[in-house]
Amino acid sequence: MTAVPDPASSLPAADDFHVFDTTLRDGAQREGINLTVADKLAIARHLDDFGVGYIEGGWPGANPRDTEFFERARDEITFRHARLVAFGATRKAGVAAADDPQVAALLASGAPVITLVAKAHDRHVELALRTTLEENLAMVRDTVAHLRAQGRRVFVDCEHFFDGYRANPGYALDVVRAAHQAGAEVVVLCDTNGGMLPAQVGTVVAAVLAATGARLGIHAQDDTGCAVANTLAAVDAGATHVQCTANGYGERVGNANLFPVVAALELKYGREVLPAGALAEMTRISHAIAEVVNLTPSTHQPYVGVSAFAHKAGLHASAIKVDPDLYQHIDPERVGNTMRMLVSDMAGRASIELKGKELGYDLTGDRDLAGRVVERVKERELAGYTYEAADASFELLLRDEVTGAATRFFRVESWRTIVEQRPDGVQVNEATVKLWAKGERIIATGEGNGPVDALDRALRVGLERIYPQLARMELVDYKVRIVEGRHGTRSTTRVLVSTSDGGEYAGARSASVEGGGGRRAGEWSTVGVGGNVIAASWQALDDAYTYGLLRAGLEPPRD
Ligand SMILES: CC(=O)SCCNC(=O)CCNC(=O)[C@H](O)C(C)(C)COP(=O)(O)OP(=O)(O)OC[C@H]1O[C@@H](n2cnc3c(N)ncnc32)[C@H](O)[C@@H]1OP(=O)(O)O
Ligand SMILES: CC(=O)C(=O)O
């Protein structure tokens, strides 16, 4: 029988290992990312907190923003862990390194480390640089030697290395040797077009190491979806420097994602590449950087996505109840994430029991109660409800079963909306609600941008005198979906509403409901279903405010 190999057994012998982040240079090359200097400084601080060894800040001289970033980073950030790296190219053909203004700008940045991009593919030298193979080697040698003579550490990124090695291995190796012999500390083999697969990367890295003895790094683009695997294959083959970007941002489809790479190195290889305790900050740092670049964090990102440890299948839950390790490759807390139970029509009693525990309800041993909740969930999901996206509505359903009574702070007698389209183009949306709360009959009206907004305002006008806590709550998201599409306008409509009290009543309810499913703390989600979008919205609003009042610490009156 063959045992599964332990990656730790193939660890390279080198004492130190570079975690090199290029979010601010290659990450910024992603379509849709447009960073200000302040954004770059904020990301640099997050990366330094996380404990990466090197932060490539950009290409000084290529644009005023990157030049300013290096000036300000020098004055404004005291790096605790990272060294700042400036990126640029080898000297131009036919120009002395000392006379090349692009090389001068790298020195002027003040960065202690410089990464030079060098051509390693003969075809690129001839077509893109329009120079000779020999002159390209001289460009690499001269630029490295010049920067070394000025007291800088130098890494060389061999662009298109793997394609170049396939086309002309002798020349690709000459470029590595030229960089190494001129004083480059690390020669980074780049899969610039991202077309390589892990076995190819491993074979080439091992061959280059054997042929040159240079310290090697890896820079993998993700065009085959293999950038993380390619990075680890390079490490297995002896690379001791990994270039990555936060959340995998980068040119085209992106780069090797920093977070799964360092998690693998720390947790699977047993190699301490971050300061003690930093890995447990990984989820927070990943989301904080996503905020700065103004992209929604990917819910399904390995290790740090909100779904990375979310369990939906009933069979999984029944095993997790015994031991979470049975369906998780690591304890989520090690990377600062949390396990979550999802309730849906794939749930079983164990899912309900675990979800109940998450919400603060002990259902242990009450198989009948858990069974009744499973049945209600399955019936309602068949009718179009979805509870995995509406934890607060699920908690109300669960609470009703546990207490044996409906959780209600108010009871609706009727509601009505009017949409009036006037000949001058003005539309008036008006709603009237008739409610009972604390024994009082209330009639209220509201106007709004649409009929649901009008209904929401009427509800608040009617109830805020009795429940002033409602004034803190606002709808922050509203989604409508046609569940059964075959009947056109007669289809079933599902409405999901997210409500927030801005954290005002934080702590009164379960953190998994408040912040779960990618929502911010202080937010909760509810669902309504109906043949009519307004009726479905009413249900979702009713649940939203009922849950909000529970969250505010109120107990529903018994009437
Ligand atoms: C694989 C990567 O991601 S590498 C990183 C790439 N990043 C970027 O390109 C972002 C920043 N780039 C820029 O702002 C601009 O392209 C600049 C300022 C660097 C250069 O702008 P320009 O001077 O207008 O040149 P342009 O962009 O058209 O072409 C690049 C030049 O660099 C040369 N060049 C390319 N690679 C190298 C190299 N490794 N060593 C030396 N010269 C190089 C090209 O031959 C070309 O020279 P030419 O102007 O004599 O034709
Ligand atoms: C250097 C770099 O970004 C690349 O070769 O992809």
From TrEMBL:
- One of its Pfam families is LeuA_dimer
- Give this protein's Gene Ontology molecular function annotations: (R)-citramalate synthase activity; 2-isopropylmalate synthase activity
SMART domains registered for this protein in UniProt: LeuA_dimer
Q: Which top EC class is given? A: transferase
Pathway annotation from the record:
Amino-acid biosynthesis; L-isoleucine biosynthesis; 2-oxobutanoate from pyruvate: step 1/3
Q: Keywords on this record?
A: Amino-acid biosynthesis, Branched-chain amino acid biosynthesis, Isoleucine biosynthesis, Transferase
Q: Which residues form the Pyruvate carboxyltransferase domain?
A: 17-280
EC number annotated for this UniProt entry:
2.3.3.21
Q: Provide the GO biological process annotations.
A: isoleucine biosynthetic process; L-leucine biosynthetic process
Q: Which reaction does it catalyse?
A: pyruvate + acetyl-CoA + H2O = (3R)-citramalate + CoA + H(+)
Alphabetical list of InterPro entries matching this protein: 2-isopropylmalate_synth_dimer, AIPM/Hcit_synth_CS, Aldolase_TIM, Citramal_synthase, LeuA/HCS_post-cat, LeuA_allosteric_dom_sf, PYR_CT
Checking NCBIfam families in the record gives:
citramal_synth (TIGR00977)
Q: What family does this belong to? A: Belongs to the alpha-IPM synthase/homocitrate synthase family.
This protein is called Citramalate synthase
Q: What is the lineage of its organism?
A: Bacteria, Bacillati, Actinomycetota, Actinomycetes, Kitasatosporales
